[in-house]
């Protein structure tokens, strides 16, 4: 059994993580772009339903 | 006339009950047994847990729905299954224990021709000392009541932040064998949003504590996405979100004990640590609800119908073998209990054949491995599939082949949405197809089809989550046209 360590090994940085640009962040809240993505995501979910698991 | 008993009124049991009533004539008897008087749309408990929704918005009374749908409702816990009946009467029965105030503890025997076990999980807070809101030192969002309590505690934490006190917030898994990492991830996303909206983000350290060996595993061995022409992993995707929102993490952790303000845990390297906290939402591990199976003579045959975890064995391949040899085909197709063609287990109640994420053990022998999720969309599909099998067997004969719906062939969506406004919310949305990766069929794309496996961030995911919230509650209330809404 190993000794109890007091300092918790908290990860505070993720060096491999891609960081979004200002444009990407703005795009995530743009109603027109997001409206298109909403439709695409609904189609994606319906594709799963039809192809995979509905009867 | 056939008698169908359904144990559990969660997503899978309730879905099965509604479809059976729709597909079968009124001459057939459908009975739902649930210890709870209310139905709960559990995915939205996350919003209750941060105080942006109240309990009434995610629950409703089951009794009026079942009365309108001509389904019998017994408010009770399932206790004993007698699949061969007794020495006096060979009719299969299930014994249930009433949870109604005026008859609490009273045993009722329900005969059945078909039985669906859809009991969901037992929330095993007792697996970790000091875990949970009932006598423990952490909060939970597993039930609507728990979520209301979590929201109250979070509000106090935000008040302390506003008063200038620094606060440590830990969100994650309360045991090394937990499942539903997606729910903890979503709660983290929401808590961070609320604290930022309150203007005190700089005073709070938010730590995601998980049994996952790396971020983005989610108990499904992670995912690969195609984004902007490049392959990306769910690890990079989650790390990106955590970087953007300043969320820290502790990986590969098994929580051993939760004292007031201190979490004691072990990591995959066998080292033991302590993490102090001011607010901790830690999910419990799941187990079977403790049903017992008895033979005609009263001898215990529980181990023939149930795995040691308490989950029910179905048509999966439970042969022990190394992780590398597990296959998508090991997962069940029909959810029929071997040897009992009139008994089925769906949703969390069925025993998975193996973990999806690689199981890991610390040098101390502690298993630290996310358990496979079996909630949400797949649960509803299983409920409907089993309902169709029962319909076929009642109408065409007991030997008719069962309908199939393997988790290795169906997809699922997990949307972590925060905020309430139509234009101010945001979400991290994942879809995966299939849920259980098929490395033979999709060897180069992480066992999944790129066309259905995606990770997106933005307002549109928030709209999807809000839409699903309203659609599924509408469907569960069996309002006109409910059957047109897919599982």
Model description:
The complex is a heterodimer of chains A (55) and B (487). By secondary structure, chain A is mostly helical. Helix content of chain A is 53%, strand content 4%. Chain A has helices at 22-27, 31-53; one strand at 4-5. With 487 residues, chain B is an alpha/beta fold. Chain B has nine helices and 27 strands. In chain B, strands 1, 2, 5, 6, 7, 8, 20, 21 and 22 form a nine-stranded mixed beta sheet that branches. Chain B has a four-stranded parallel beta sheet with strand order 14-11-10-18, with helices on one face. A three-stranded antiparallel beta sheet of chain B has the order 15-16-17, with no helix packed on it. In chain B, helix 1 packs parallel to helix 8 (377-396). Chain B is globular. At the A-B interface, strand 1 and helix 2 of A face helix 6, strand 14, strand 17, helix 8 and strand 26 of B.
Q: Which band does the percent of strand residues of chain A land in?
A: under 5%
Query: How would you sum up the global shape of chain B?
Result: globular
Biggest β-sheet description of chain B = 9 strands, mixed
> Count of DSSP helices of chain A?
2
Largest sheet of chain A: none
Q: What structural category arises from helix and sheet content of chain A? A: mainly alpha
Task: Determine the number of helices of chain B (DSSP H or I, runs of at least 4 residues).
Answer: 9
- N-end to C-end Cα span of chain B: 28 Å
> Largest chain-chain contact?
A-B, 42 and 56 residues
Give the CA-CA distance, first to last residue of chain A: 54 Å
Residue-averaged pLDDT of chain B: 94
**Rg on CA atoms of chain B, Å:** 22 Å
Count of extended strands of chain A: 1
Mean pLDDT of chain A: 83
Instruction: Provide the low-confidence segments of chain B as ranges.
Output: none
